[in-house]
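Intended use. Records like the one below are meant for learning the mapping from a protein sequence to its folded structure. Do not use them to infer anything beyond what is encoded.
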Amino acid sequence: MFEFSGIHNALLDEQLDNFTRALSKPAGLLVAKPGNWLAAFDLLTIYLAPLIKSQRKVIFFDEFPWVCTPRLGFMHAFKHFWNMWAFRQKNQVVIIYGSAAAWMIRKVINNRGGLHNRVTRKIRLLPFTIAETANFLKEQKINLDQYQVLQLYMLMGGIPHYLKEIEKGENAIKAIDRTCFTKDWLLFNEFSNLFLSLFDDAGYHMDVIRTLVKNSTGLTRNEIIVACKLSSGGGYYKAAGRTC
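Structure written out for the chain above:
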């Protein structure tokens, strides 16, 4: 298996360094750093070609959007790698993952260029329902009444990664206080981290959410535009449409 993870806000040279280290590990030798992504994928092809003749191999690209910024040239090289070689190999599986869900949908799932209709399988991971959340907590030996389960569900949304932080003996209020308002705990900075991972221009989306929170009765489209200083066309759609 070859595994490579993009680095957030890294320069081309840093991303290529990271790729070189990732390829050197399974190859068992020191690989010379390529000068660009086309050369990098050529090296990957040379490494994989003899291996997939006898067994299935998996390529896993983690945090795909972080390495696909326009100036890096990664996306064009990846399209070339996939269309000219990888998709023809029966023993080759390519898996790409990105925490920026909106980007993955726009740029990969709905791609109109070289990756159009190239997705073989989509893995849809849904959060737990409230009933599944209650069952999950019971399996963890955490006994809470229905109201406390509801409180946790409204906050954590049925996400197992969050729910596993609940400790035995805690009530919902203590669990929320510890995980959300204690420095360095899991959810302390999750608001900003989540939006930064989902959207390229996270500040606009965060402004919309903060504005809506201050108005319990809700806001009209025009009120959001004025309060957040957005344009009435693309600016509103980019900030509010994708957020809400």
